[in-house]
Amino acid sequence: MMPVEEIRLTAKFKVDFTDADEAAISEIHRLFKEYQRIVNELIEYAHSHGVTSPRRLWYAKYHEMRQKHSTLPSHYIYVACQDAAGTYKSFVELKKLGMCEKERPVFKGRAIWLDRQLFKLDVKDRRASIAVHGGKWITLRLLYGKKYHERFKDMKPGEARLVLKDDGNLYLNVVFRRAVALPEISADAKIIAIDINENVVVYGNNEFVERFETNEGIIRTRYFLKRRRIQSKIRGRGLRARLLGKYRSREWRRIKEIYYKAVKRIIDKAKEADVKIIIMEDLKHLNRKDKGSRELNGRIHRWSYSRFQKILEYQAKLCGLHVKYVNPRGTSKTCPICGSELEESSNGRRLMKCWKCGLEEDKDVIAVKNLVKRYYEECMDAKTP
Q1: Alpha-carbon dihedral of residues 289, 290, 291, 292, nearest 10 degrees?
Q2: Residue-range domains of the chain with CATH
Q3: What pLDDT, on a 0 to 100 scale, did the predictor assign at position 123?
């Protein structure tokens, strides 16, 4: 039997208020304010009692919150416990790393988490229904094109978030799920390893290595400086917010276009080389470490490597490719041949040299080869009893 994996894709639907009545709009804003109060009260309890578990928070506060908010559907209390516990847990982790100076976290109330009991979605008719006070449902008209309909019509909607932007626009972000059957992996299956940097994506194996210049770091820095100039020079709050939103959207569109081009190049190469597995670096804790330099920390936090990895993973699984993650520690500083520590070569800034075996190569190419080596080592360790 072929292994089955679940892939997830988030869709962002804009809510059209053109034909909505004042009562529906008022009810939505009331829902946001009440949800904000609930989550902040739960965060206060989590902070004072050191609770990071959603289940413990639910057991402690559910009945009290139900009495206070009796007209609100009970599932809002459940998802608020998830939100509050997750927010407080992230705060505790950042506090331990010295990356947060606040005494306690505050929920600003710009997003409401919805489980499947709190919303209904009709992709074909472009409509969504949201549960509100008194057991009522509000129907919202969604704006999206035919391309979105074709992409999600065969996928199952999961949880969602109702997001209220600073400009007053309302969005429904829905996570869709789909089960994909992947071929079984043989012992001699070919792989491609991917090394992701701020401005370049390097991919390959022991037979070939190719580069794709993204220049993401350069683009991000330019937009960051542009936004900082707007914040310092534009005094009007409304105009400043519109300009910041405009350039944020423009920046993400440019980056997303580059990401999809890079992903297509990698997957096409994987098909050409008959690759079955894509190896990526496990970078989930990268932006939680203080690098010592304020400039470097800012660049890392602006760099959306996880978005690129999610796009690549989704597209790869749709094409029947397995995706695996390995520990990237030391991959660009270790010799892939003898395992010795590398030093920077005098012939170039990105060249690394092994003084033991004489290897001299680009550090990104070395990282790719080490990722391939590390994947096979982890496979051997898994098979060893």
Answers
A1: -170
A2: 4-180 (no CATH), 191-216+247-383 (3.30.420)
A3: 85
